[in-house]
Amino acid sequence: MKKSIKLIVAISATALVSSVAVTPAAHGATKQKVCVALDTAGINDKSFNQTSYEGAKMALSKGYAASIKYAPAKSNADYAPNIKGFIAEKCTVIVGIGYLLGDAIAAAAKANPTVKFGFVDGWGLGNNVKAITYKTDENSFIVGYMAAAMSKTGKVGTYGGLPIPTVTIFMEGFANGVAHYNLMKNKNVKVLGWNTETKTGTFLGGFDDTTKALQTSISLEQQGADFIFPVSGGMQATTAANSQKTKKSSVIWVDAKVMNTGAQYANVVPVSVVKGLAEGVLATVKEAYDGKFTSKEYVGTMANKGVSIAFTPAWNNKIPASLKAEIAKLSKDIAAGNIIALNTVE
Protein backbone atom coordinates (compact mmCIF):
# COMPACT_ATOMS: atom_id res chain seq x y z
CA MET A 1 0.00 0.00 0.00
CA LYS A 2 1.28 3.44 -0.84
CA LYS A 3 1.43 6.03 1.80
CA SER A 4 1.09 9.51 0.36
CA ILE A 5 2.65 12.39 2.20
CA LYS A 6 2.53 15.75 0.52
CA LEU A 7 4.09 18.55 2.47
CA ILE A 8 4.66 21.98 1.05
CA VAL A 9 6.99 24.01 3.17
CA ALA A 10 5.57 27.46 2.92
CA ILE A 11 8.20 30.04 3.78
CA SER A 12 5.85 32.97 3.79
CA ALA A 13 4.16 35.37 6.07
CA THR A 14 1.54 33.44 6.67
CA ALA A 15 -2.40 51.96 32.74
CA LEU A 16 0.81 52.76 34.32
CA VAL A 17 3.51 54.17 32.07
CA SER A 18 7.21 53.74 32.85
CA SER A 19 9.79 56.25 31.62
CA VAL A 20 13.48 56.09 30.84
CA ALA A 21 15.84 59.01 31.32
CA VAL A 22 16.74 61.21 28.37
CA THR A 23 20.17 60.80 26.85
CA PRO A 24 21.93 64.04 25.83
CA ALA A 25 21.88 64.78 22.10
CA ALA A 26 24.94 63.64 20.19
CA HIS A 27 23.79 63.83 16.60
CA GLY A 28 22.21 66.38 14.30
CA ALA A 29 19.25 64.29 13.06
CA THR A 30 15.80 64.28 14.63
CA LYS A 31 15.66 62.34 17.88
CA GLN A 32 12.36 60.64 18.50
CA LYS A 33 10.10 60.36 21.51
CA VAL A 34 9.53 56.62 21.38
CA CYS A 35 6.56 55.11 23.18
CA VAL A 36 5.91 51.36 23.28
CA ALA A 37 2.44 49.89 23.82
CA LEU A 38 2.86 46.40 25.25
CA ASP A 39 0.65 43.39 24.85
CA THR A 40 -0.52 41.57 27.98
CA ALA A 41 2.01 39.51 30.01
CA GLY A 42 4.09 42.47 31.16
CA ILE A 43 7.46 44.02 30.44
CA ASN A 44 9.39 41.13 32.01
CA ASP A 45 7.66 38.35 30.08
CA LYS A 46 11.00 36.88 28.92
CA SER A 47 9.56 36.98 25.41
CA PHE A 48 8.03 39.41 22.92
CA ASN A 49 7.27 42.41 25.18
CA GLN A 50 10.64 42.36 26.88
CA THR A 51 12.64 41.69 23.74
CA SER A 52 10.81 44.29 21.66
CA TYR A 53 11.38 46.95 24.30
CA GLU A 54 15.09 46.16 24.15
CA GLY A 55 14.93 47.68 20.65
CA ALA A 56 13.71 50.95 22.12
CA LYS A 57 16.53 50.83 24.67
CA MET A 58 19.01 50.28 21.86
CA ALA A 59 17.57 53.28 19.99
CA LEU A 60 18.05 55.40 23.10
CA SER A 61 21.64 54.27 23.61
CA LYS A 62 22.49 54.92 19.95
CA GLY A 63 21.00 58.40 20.08
CA TYR A 64 18.04 57.76 17.75
CA ALA A 65 15.57 58.38 20.58
CA ALA A 66 15.48 61.33 22.95
CA SER A 67 13.38 59.35 25.41
CA ILE A 68 11.55 56.04 25.63
CA LYS A 69 8.69 54.72 27.72
CA TYR A 70 6.27 51.84 27.74
CA ALA A 71 2.67 51.21 28.75
CA PRO A 72 1.70 47.76 30.02
CA ALA A 73 -1.66 46.20 29.25
CA LYS A 74 -3.59 44.10 31.73
CA SER A 75 -6.16 43.19 29.09
CA ASN A 76 -7.18 43.97 25.51
CA ALA A 77 -9.22 46.87 26.86
CA ASP A 78 -5.98 48.75 27.64
CA TYR A 79 -4.63 48.83 24.08
CA ALA A 80 -6.55 51.84 22.76
CA PRO A 81 -6.29 53.96 25.95
CA ASN A 82 -2.54 53.35 26.14
CA ILE A 83 -2.05 54.53 22.56
CA LYS A 84 -4.34 57.52 23.04
CA GLY A 85 -2.26 58.44 26.08
CA PHE A 86 0.87 58.36 23.96
CA ILE A 87 -0.77 60.61 21.38
CA ALA A 88 -1.65 63.10 24.12
CA GLU A 89 1.97 63.03 25.30
CA LYS A 90 3.11 63.87 21.74
CA CYS A 91 5.12 60.70 21.19
CA THR A 92 6.63 60.84 17.70
CA VAL A 93 7.05 57.08 17.23
CA ILE A 94 4.57 54.69 18.78
CA VAL A 95 5.37 50.98 18.62
CA GLY A 96 2.63 48.45 19.25
CA ILE A 97 3.76 45.00 20.35
CA GLY A 98 1.63 42.20 19.04
CA TYR A 99 -0.96 41.23 16.49
CA LEU A 100 -3.85 41.96 18.84
CA LEU A 101 -3.11 45.70 18.91
CA GLY A 102 -4.17 46.02 15.26
CA ASP A 103 -7.53 47.72 15.79
CA ALA A 104 -6.13 50.22 18.26
CA ILE A 105 -3.21 51.10 15.99
CA ALA A 106 -5.41 51.36 12.91
CA ALA A 107 -7.72 53.85 14.59
CA ALA A 108 -4.93 55.93 16.08
CA ALA A 109 -2.88 55.99 12.88
CA LYS A 110 -5.84 57.14 10.81
CA ALA A 111 -6.69 59.91 13.27
CA ASN A 112 -3.05 61.04 13.66
CA PRO A 113 -1.35 60.92 10.24
CA THR A 114 1.74 62.83 11.41
CA VAL A 115 2.58 60.26 14.10
CA LYS A 116 4.74 57.33 13.02
CA PHE A 117 3.76 53.83 14.12
CA GLY A 118 5.66 50.57 14.25
CA PHE A 119 3.50 47.45 14.47
CA VAL A 120 5.32 44.33 15.67
CA ASP A 121 3.75 41.16 14.24
CA GLY A 122 1.36 43.39 12.35
CA TRP A 123 0.38 44.35 8.84
CA GLY A 124 0.09 47.46 6.70
CA LEU A 125 -2.38 49.98 8.07
CA GLY A 126 -1.56 53.13 6.16
CA ASN A 127 1.28 55.41 5.12
CA ASN A 128 2.31 56.15 8.70
CA VAL A 129 2.44 52.51 9.89
CA LYS A 130 5.39 50.17 9.41
CA ALA A 131 4.63 46.50 9.95
CA ILE A 132 7.50 44.65 11.65
CA THR A 133 7.16 41.00 10.67
CA TYR A 134 9.12 37.76 10.81
CA LYS A 135 9.18 34.54 8.83
CA THR A 136 9.37 32.42 11.94
CA ASP A 137 8.28 29.31 10.07
CA GLU A 138 11.85 29.29 8.74
CA ASN A 139 13.71 28.83 12.01
CA SER A 140 10.84 26.82 13.51
CA PHE A 141 11.22 24.34 10.64
CA ILE A 142 14.84 23.82 11.63
CA VAL A 143 14.12 23.15 15.30
CA GLY A 144 11.29 20.82 14.31
CA TYR A 145 13.80 18.78 12.35
CA MET A 146 16.20 18.89 15.29
CA ALA A 147 13.56 17.85 17.84
CA ALA A 148 12.51 14.92 15.67
CA ALA A 149 16.13 13.83 15.32
CA MET A 150 16.79 13.98 19.07
CA SER A 151 13.49 12.55 20.27
CA LYS A 152 13.76 9.19 22.02
CA THR A 153 10.02 8.61 22.30
CA GLY A 154 9.14 9.38 18.68
CA LYS A 155 6.75 12.12 19.82
CA VAL A 156 7.26 15.88 20.07
CA GLY A 157 4.75 18.51 21.13
CA THR A 158 3.81 22.13 20.74
CA TYR A 159 1.18 24.52 22.04
CA GLY A 160 0.34 28.16 21.49
CA GLY A 161 -1.02 31.10 23.43
CA LEU A 162 -3.76 32.05 20.97
CA PRO A 163 -4.69 30.72 17.49
CA ILE A 164 -3.48 33.82 15.65
CA PRO A 165 -1.20 33.88 12.59
CA THR A 166 1.86 35.11 14.47
CA VAL A 167 1.61 32.07 16.75
CA THR A 168 0.49 29.38 14.33
CA ILE A 169 3.30 30.25 11.89
CA PHE A 170 5.77 28.87 14.47
CA MET A 171 3.72 25.72 15.00
CA GLU A 172 3.27 25.08 11.28
CA GLY A 173 6.98 25.51 10.61
CA PHE A 174 7.85 23.22 13.51
CA ALA A 175 5.52 20.46 12.29
CA ASN A 176 6.83 20.84 8.74
CA GLY A 177 10.36 20.39 10.04
CA VAL A 178 9.36 17.16 11.77
CA ALA A 179 7.72 15.91 8.57
CA HIS A 180 10.85 16.77 6.60
CA TYR A 181 12.94 14.74 9.03
CA ASN A 182 10.53 11.82 8.70
CA LEU A 183 10.80 11.93 4.93
CA MET A 184 14.57 12.24 4.84
CA LYS A 185 15.18 9.54 7.45
CA ASN A 186 12.21 7.24 6.79
CA LYS A 187 10.95 7.78 10.33
CA ASN A 188 7.53 8.43 11.82
CA VAL A 189 8.00 10.99 14.60
CA LYS A 190 4.60 12.35 15.58
CA VAL A 191 3.67 15.94 16.41
CA LEU A 192 1.26 16.55 19.27
CA GLY A 193 -0.51 19.91 19.54
CA TRP A 194 -0.66 20.92 15.86
CA ASN A 195 -2.24 19.42 12.76
CA THR A 196 -0.82 20.68 9.47
CA GLU A 197 -3.84 19.48 7.50
CA THR A 198 -6.62 21.02 9.59
CA LYS A 199 -4.47 23.92 10.88
CA THR A 200 -5.78 23.29 14.39
CA GLY A 201 -3.92 22.72 17.62
CA THR A 202 -3.59 23.19 21.36
CA PHE A 203 -3.89 26.72 22.78
CA LEU A 204 -3.98 28.27 26.24
CA GLY A 205 -6.44 31.04 25.40
CA GLY A 206 -3.88 33.74 26.25
CA PHE A 207 -0.27 34.41 27.17
CA ASP A 208 -0.41 34.61 30.94
CA ASP A 209 -2.24 31.52 32.22
CA THR A 210 0.44 29.66 34.15
CA THR A 211 -2.01 27.06 35.44
CA LYS A 212 -3.11 26.06 31.97
CA ALA A 213 0.46 26.20 30.68
CA LEU A 214 1.52 23.74 33.37
CA GLN A 215 -1.45 21.47 32.70
CA THR A 216 -0.70 21.49 28.97
CA SER A 217 2.99 20.76 29.53
CA ILE A 218 2.20 17.82 31.78
CA SER A 219 -0.40 16.52 29.34
CA LEU A 220 2.07 16.58 26.44
CA GLU A 221 4.59 14.68 28.55
CA GLN A 222 1.95 12.14 29.55
CA GLN A 223 1.19 11.60 25.87
CA GLY A 224 4.87 10.85 25.28
CA ALA A 225 6.33 14.11 24.01
CA ASP A 226 9.96 14.48 25.05
CA PHE A 227 10.46 17.81 23.24
CA ILE A 228 8.00 20.70 23.74
CA PHE A 229 7.79 23.90 21.67
CA PRO A 230 5.71 26.43 23.67
CA VAL A 231 4.71 29.40 21.49
CA SER A 232 3.14 31.30 24.33
CA GLY A 233 5.32 34.16 25.47
CA GLY A 234 6.43 33.94 29.08
CA MET A 235 4.55 30.67 29.58
CA GLN A 236 7.56 28.88 28.16
CA ALA A 237 9.18 29.42 31.56
CA THR A 238 6.37 27.39 33.16
CA THR A 239 7.00 24.58 30.68
CA ALA A 240 10.74 24.68 31.28
CA ALA A 241 10.31 24.64 35.07
CA ASN A 242 8.09 21.58 34.72
CA SER A 243 10.69 19.90 32.51
CA GLN A 244 13.33 20.50 35.17
CA LYS A 245 11.05 18.94 37.76
CA THR A 246 9.90 15.87 35.83
CA LYS A 247 13.04 15.31 33.72
CA LYS A 248 10.73 13.93 31.03
CA SER A 249 11.12 16.57 28.33
CA SER A 250 13.32 19.23 26.79
CA VAL A 251 12.02 22.65 25.76
CA ILE A 252 12.65 24.82 22.71
CA TRP A 253 12.84 28.47 23.79
CA VAL A 254 10.98 31.06 21.70
CA ASP A 255 11.61 34.69 20.63
CA ALA A 256 14.97 35.25 22.33
CA LYS A 257 18.03 33.27 23.39
CA VAL A 258 17.36 31.36 26.58
CA MET A 259 20.69 32.61 27.95
CA ASN A 260 19.35 36.18 27.68
CA THR A 261 15.84 35.72 29.07
CA GLY A 262 15.81 32.44 30.99
CA ALA A 263 19.33 31.23 31.75
CA GLN A 264 18.10 29.27 34.77
CA TYR A 265 16.41 26.88 32.34
CA ALA A 266 19.46 26.24 30.15
CA ASN A 267 19.81 22.64 31.28
CA VAL A 268 16.47 21.71 29.66
CA VAL A 269 16.66 24.03 26.62
CA PRO A 270 18.97 22.78 23.85
CA VAL A 271 18.09 25.49 21.33
CA SER A 272 16.29 28.81 21.00
CA VAL A 273 14.19 30.07 18.11
CA VAL A 274 15.30 33.69 17.91
CA LYS A 275 13.09 36.42 16.52
CA GLY A 276 14.92 39.72 16.00
CA LEU A 277 12.30 41.82 17.74
CA ALA A 278 14.76 44.31 19.16
CA GLU A 279 16.42 44.73 15.76
CA GLY A 280 13.08 45.36 14.04
CA VAL A 281 12.08 48.03 16.54
CA LEU A 282 15.53 49.62 16.35
CA ALA A 283 15.40 49.74 12.54
CA THR A 284 11.99 51.41 12.65
CA VAL A 285 13.10 54.11 15.09
CA LYS A 286 16.28 54.72 13.09
CA GLU A 287 14.24 55.27 9.93
CA ALA A 288 12.26 57.97 11.72
CA TYR A 289 15.44 59.49 13.13
CA ASP A 290 17.02 59.59 9.66
CA GLY A 291 13.91 61.18 8.16
CA LYS A 292 13.40 58.13 5.94
CA PHE A 293 10.39 56.50 7.58
CA THR A 294 8.15 54.61 5.16
CA SER A 295 5.33 52.11 5.41
CA LYS A 296 7.44 49.46 3.69
CA GLU A 297 7.22 46.30 5.75
CA TYR A 298 10.22 45.14 7.76
CA VAL A 299 10.57 41.37 7.25
CA GLY A 300 12.98 39.34 9.35
CA THR A 301 14.20 36.18 7.58
CA MET A 302 16.95 33.60 7.83
CA ALA A 303 18.64 35.36 4.91
CA ASN A 304 18.88 38.76 6.64
CA LYS A 305 19.35 37.18 10.10
CA GLY A 306 16.05 38.61 11.28
CA VAL A 307 15.22 35.09 12.46
CA SER A 308 17.70 32.44 13.54
CA ILE A 309 18.38 29.59 15.92
CA ALA A 310 20.87 29.56 18.79
CA PHE A 311 22.24 26.44 20.43
CA THR A 312 22.50 26.62 24.22
CA PRO A 313 26.21 26.40 25.22
CA ALA A 314 25.54 23.73 27.85
CA TRP A 315 24.22 21.48 25.09
CA ASN A 316 27.15 21.79 22.70
CA ASN A 317 28.45 18.31 23.49
CA LYS A 318 24.99 16.74 23.66
CA ILE A 319 23.98 17.54 20.09
CA PRO A 320 25.66 15.16 17.64
CA ALA A 321 28.09 16.75 15.19
CA SER A 322 26.30 15.01 12.32
CA LEU A 323 23.00 16.61 13.33
CA LYS A 324 24.65 20.02 13.63
CA ALA A 325 25.94 19.59 10.08
CA GLU A 326 22.45 18.71 8.83
CA ILE A 327 21.01 21.74 10.61
CA ALA A 328 23.68 24.01 9.09
CA LYS A 329 22.78 22.76 5.63
CA LEU A 330 19.07 23.21 6.24
CA SER A 331 19.71 26.74 7.45
CA LYS A 332 21.63 27.59 4.29
CA ASP A 333 18.99 26.02 2.06
CA ILE A 334 16.20 27.98 3.72
CA ALA A 335 18.16 31.24 3.60
CA ALA A 336 18.78 30.67 -0.11
CA GLY A 337 15.12 29.88 -0.78
CA ASN A 338 15.89 26.29 -1.73
CA ILE A 339 12.96 24.74 0.09
CA ILE A 340 11.42 22.03 -2.03
CA ALA A 341 7.90 20.61 -1.77
CA LEU A 342 8.17 17.07 -0.44
CA ASN A 343 7.09 14.34 -2.82
CA THR A 344 4.98 11.27 -2.28
CA VAL A 345 6.64 8.66 -0.08
CA GLU A 346 6.18 4.99 -1.06
Automatic annotation (TrEMBL):
Identify the GO cellular component terms for this protein.
Answer: plasma membrane
Keyword list, A-Z: Cell membrane, Lipoprotein, Membrane, Signal
- Does the keyword section mention Lipoprotein? yes
Question: Where does this polypeptide localize?
Answer: Cell membrane
In this protein, which residues make up the domain named ABC transporter substrate-binding protein PnrA-like? Answer: 35-299
* Record has Cell inner membrane as a keyword: no
Can you name this protein? Unannotated protein
